[in-house]
Amino acid sequence: YVPPQVRRAQEAIDDKKREELGRLKKMVNGLINRLSEPNLSSISGQMEELYMANSRKDMNDTLTDILMNACVTAVAMPMRLVMEHVLLVSILHHNVGIEVGAHFLEAVVKKFDELCKSDAEGKECENLLALIAHLYNFHVVHCLLIFDILKKLVSTFTEKEIELILFLLKNVGFSLRKDDALALKELITEAQRKASTAEKKFQDQTRVRFMLETMLALRNNDMRKIPGYDPEPVERLRKLQRTLVRSSGSGKDTQLRVSLESLLGADQVGRWWIVGSSWSGAPMISDTNSKTQQKLHLGKVSSKIMELARKQRMNTDIRRSIFCVLMASEDFMDAFEKLLK
């Protein structure tokens, strides 16, 4: 039973929160709508101010929702638009904190996985893949995730997957080759094996042949063989990113080295890639009560030292044990041996 006055107070708080979130959404939406390459500097600055003024969770949720609505549509998005949106996320990821990029990445990957399983006719999968590719281009995520996605697409190997593999390789293929040439070589071998076994399955062999040619061009570092490949826009935006990111290294140290499996199972296994991320299902928290606390054997310790330990507020067995070891050891080697025990 909730008393009426408590209920009224709760409703008032909920209304107030809803109103605040509505106002925040309007402000973020206004900034995202005006986003373009020339005013990226001022808009990223205003977004950082909003991050300082509001709760991180509210800002992450709002920004992710607005960007997903803007970029994940049934028609193919212009690549320049996707790049500008992702560049904003990457600047906030480096300047505000890695949880910004991590939250957005998780939402994108989960949506991509969901749409891959369903037979959606639109271009949503390509748009989501473009977001992931540019998150990699702008140093938000490590190549590990891209290889995981490519392996998953190669293992399924239907016509839709072949289109997605081609799309991804065209956008990030040469960066992947630079970051991990061996993994790319293994992927190409696997794709060739799949293509040879699946020859009967496809009526139209030209796409499969084209995909294999593209992969060979990547392996041989031959950019001319890939039609429509133009690294210039990404390079230009990377230069802009370097001027806007405050920390000296524009990215390698803040790249999220997280696998596809970890991202999809984040609700079950926790988000270890975000420092300080709380998670109710932590096995370390739940198991401590059930385990019997093991006693620490120290041999006989004089009551005088135990009294000193009590005075120094050593209030748990392990603290008392460490204190007694340090106080009663003959030399540093003796202390080291006892501490190891």
UniProtKB/TrEMBL annotation:
One cellular-component annotation, GO: nucleolus
Statement: the UniProt record of this protein carries the keyword Nucleus: yes
GO biological process: ribosomal small subunit biogenesis
Domain of life (superkingdom): Eukaryota
Domain MIF4G: 25-222
Location of the protein in the cell: Nucleus, Nucleolus
A Pfam family matched in the record: MIF4G
SUPFAM superfamilies the UniProt entry points to: ARM repeat
Coiled coil (residue ranges): none
Keywords: Nucleus
Cited InterPro entries: ARM-type_fold, CWC22_splicing_factor, MIF4G-like_typ-3
Keyword Translocase: no
A Gene Ontology molecular function term of the record: RNA binding
Predominant location: nucleus
Function: Plays a role in targeting PPP1CA to the nucleolus.
Subunit (UniProt): May interact with EIF4A1, EIF4A2 and EIF4A3. Interacts with PPP1CA and PPP1CC.
Family to which the UniProt record says this protein belongs: Belongs to the CWC22 family.
Protein name per Swiss-Prot or TrEMBL: Nucleolar MIF4G domain-containing protein 1
Gene that produces this protein: Nom1
